[in-house]
Protein 1
Amino acid sequence: MAEGPFSPEEQQRFDSALAEILTHYPQDRKEAAMMPALRLLQAIKGWLPPDGLALVAQRLGTSKERAYEVATFYVMFHTEKPGKYVVDVCTNLSCSLWGAEKLLQHIERKVGLKAGESNGKYTLRETECLASCGTAPCLQINEEHHESLSPAKVDEIFSRLP
Amino acid sequence: MTEKIITKNWGQEGSHTLDGYRKNGGYQALKKALGMKPQEVLDEVKKSNLRGRGGAGFPTGAKWGFVPKDSPKPTYLAVNADESEPGTFKDRYILEYDPHLMIEGIAITAYALPRCSVAYIYIRGEFKKQAEICQRALDEAYAAGLLGKKVMGSDFSLDVWLVRGAGAYICGEETALLESLEGKKGWPRLKPPFPAVVGLFGAPTIINNVETLASVPSIIEKGAAWYAGLGTEKSGGTRLICLSGAVNRPGVYEISLKTTIRELIFDPELGQGMPDGRSVKAVIPGGSSAPVLSADEIDVALEFEALKNKGTMAGSGGVIVMDDATCMVRCLWRVARFYAEESCGQCTPCREGTPWQTRILRKIEEGRGVKGDVEQLLNVAAAIAPYPPIGLGNTICALGDAAALPTHSFVSRFRAEFDAHIEQKKCPYGDRPWGHFGGGRA
């Protein structure tokens, strides 16, 4: 793998983690490890670059097309490089009943993006129910969950981003 | 006061750790089960009237009984921790506060099933913290000999692997979950064959919800008769209800199956009533897929049979309350958008129908509706799944029904509001469609 997606250190991390993951599956079902393998790739690279997808497919004994099909089906997988902070704001029913639409507008003004847009720093998305309806409204930033939000609380969370 | 089974350890220090769990008698039920014959464990769960807490409410013991006794293949247990039905947020807290309760339930269940030595927990990708807590709990259980080879020194062995999803509501559907576990996109499978016969990797597979499995240890510990006695004739035990929307105290409550929606909303120990000056307009009783009820229909127990008799369903226990200042068209539009977003695209009626519903609803809400739009909307919904009764959908899985039922039920209960939008060429609620709390938290 001279032209792989990884540096030598990353390659080592990928190889050892993938070897452990594969012990969770029957030996003739390596391709079943697609979800954790893609998650691993994304944890290392921050997204799923094409050469990374190809490597995952090759290691799991399946096609690049299969890897791409899975990668594009799930919203948490990024087949394009996202901003440094992926901000997912829930606007589903219970959150909207607690002001999620207004909160999203506040965040849109704050980061200068409309939901669905991206720049180098932020990817802002309207997302579906995050199963936090009793503490609505809520959002996630790079998979970190924040709940019972007000505009002031959002401002504080953003101000603490490194 | 309802007896606490699932939530009994919540709020106690270290409830998510093995030490904390054992301090409260944890893993005694597994020890007891391992001294019983697997068939005796299964019989006990059958007699308890435990019904699935994921949405369908299917009797758990009967489901386990569908696994063929004499198959050359192993049996898998798949734990559905893909909690994503809008309005549902109970499994989140089981995983966070008491993961060992679920793990003990997994071990007992796997023991009761024939040839089951591997379980997969499929947890939704957004539950990062819960996945980490759960994995630590699994590691603790392995280290203590409660999982792995020779569980508690018996001849029973069990591996439990945690798999994280990546953001797809459809993977909560049991056969889509299996597809995802097999490393594929989450496209539901046609049934039959049912997963209990042909499931994961072509082998018999039981799929149970987190809360369902967390109910199992107490049944073994205290007996089926005790558990059945807590519930109603056909549904044993207590259940977790997730209360959200326009109430003073949203949250997860462990309640008796005899509790009514009105009691849930107004009891000072539970929802603590409506905000000042507001009354109930509508309640979704079982996650956003469940047909909505109007204010005069809420004296109904939050129980499978009672809600079925009202033309709706207990579903996943997600109760969403809307107050009298809330626009029903706006609510239905948002619900419809969800199903359009989450439709997997496999079946035409759902793939095409869910965005079509959304477009019509948007048009009506934005004041561009014309006469005939509501009929058109109902036609589209009926093409996905006619109603009543529930369950006649024209799609492989129940997402089609889930997308059509809100439309049928919102229109049948609140038709006048849809017509008012069209007649006035605007939303009568102006820029405040979301009711009392819709302006957000201060």
Note: The radius of gyration of chain B is 22 Å.
Protein 2
Amino acid sequence: MGQLYVEGDLRVVGTVEGGLEVTGSVEIDDGGRVTGPVTAHDRLVVGRAGSLVGDVHVARLVVADGATFSGKVSMGKQVDAPPKPVELPVPVAEPAKIEDTVKAEAPVTVAEPVKTQQPFKGQPAKPQQFHAPKPPDRKGKRR
Amino acid sequence: MDVQEAVAESTPAASVEDNGDARRGGQRKFTMGPNDSLEGKLVYEGDVHVDGRAEGEFKVTGNLDVAQGATARISIEAANVSVKGQVEGSVNAHDKLTLGKNARLSGDIVVRRLQIEDGASLNGHVRMGDIEQHGSGG
């Protein structure tokens, strides 16, 4: 008895004794025999002459007429998400230290002076022409 | 050579009589409609078509089928069981259980033959009569 973990699909034509976990689909073909729990994140198909004895946790299940099947079936959405790869604890980097080392070895890159593009203002705004009220006609007031 | 078509089979689904009880070639059939509901214990010699809403215990000598769209909270014992709707409860099929592609069944199953179509949903324990149950302590 052992445990088989497969990333992808699996087709069983022989005999498997032990647990199966597959990220894709499992197909137990004619003549295939599985004894043990099966987890398939997609689909499990038991063919006409296939045999499965064990608890099953799958997203979709197809059992052909004539297949042998016995066990507890749980189908649920939670299987849909493939398992996360083993998460290694990522050590939290100490920023200060790393910065120091980098500075020591890497050439100091001086940031180029940033050419800030002056917003184009176009022509200086013309002095606004005020239409000053014309001085009243002094027609009749000649000196 | 003349091939005789099975004309007798083509009569429209077992012409239903007044109380949903019909006879088809000597075999009785109890038919529920989509607006029917039934609660309690049904012991029936013949076939049963479950539709609408059903609750309780159905013991049938013939075949039992649960229509698509039907909601049944029943324990079933029948020769052949075909589920296209939603069933909550145990199923004991002396011969075969078929789950259609839209079937939803949650409950324990004891059958001789089992067919599950892609798309069906099943939650429960399946035991096949043909399989000897070994102690699972290995």
Note: Residues 2-73 of chain A form one domain.
